[in-house]
């Protein structure tokens, strides 16, 4: 099982980035996918989530209107489009896969991709 994030980097305030999370080794289309970030100042912070079919999304309040989560089940990939980036968005962004079936939970984490927002 693997979740591999990519797309992070250094971007100026107000800029945009697209993060990718490529999944393998499990039935991606059956999993609820989330993005979570960690920064030294704020700790672990939930960013956004999307259901298995892609028809339902949710966002943390501070990301609404700036971030968009999407997925392509044919490509086993989830995306996070980020715009109007702020220095406070600087963090390591992690991809998380989650499934609850008959009371049994399966979940997986990626290793993260660094996003740095700075001029």
What is shown here, in short?
With 119 residues, the chain is an all-beta fold. The chain has strands at 2-6, 9-11, 17-24, 32-39, 43-50, 57-59, 67-72, 77-82, 91-101, 104-109, 113-117.
Characterize the structure shown:
Helix content is about 0%, strand content about 60%. It has strands at about 1-5, 10, 15-25, 30-40, 45-50, 55-60, 65-70, 75-80, 90-100, 105-110, 115. The strands form two sheets. Strands 2, 4, 5, 6, 9, 10 and 11 form a seven-stranded mixed sheet that branches. The chain has a four-stranded antiparallel sheet with strand order 1-3-8-7, with no helix packed on it. Strand 4 (about 30-40) and strand 5 form a beta hairpin.
- The total count of helices amounts to 0
Q: First CA to last CA: what distance?
A: 37 Å
Beta-strand percentage range: over 45%
Percent of residues in helices: under 10%
Largest sheet: 7 strands, mixed
Structural class: mainly beta
Mean pLDDT: 96
Indicate the low-confidence ranges by residue numbers.
none
Order of helices and strands: EEEEEEEEEEE
Number of beta strands: 11
Estimated radius of gyration: 14 Å
Write down the overall geometry.
globular
Features:
119 residues; mainly beta; seven-stranded mixed β-sheet; globular
Write the layout of secondary structure elements.
Blueprint: E1 2-6, E2 9-11, E3 17-24, E4 32-39, E5 43-50, E6 57-59, E7 67-72, E8 77-82, E9 91-101, E10 104-109, E11 113-117
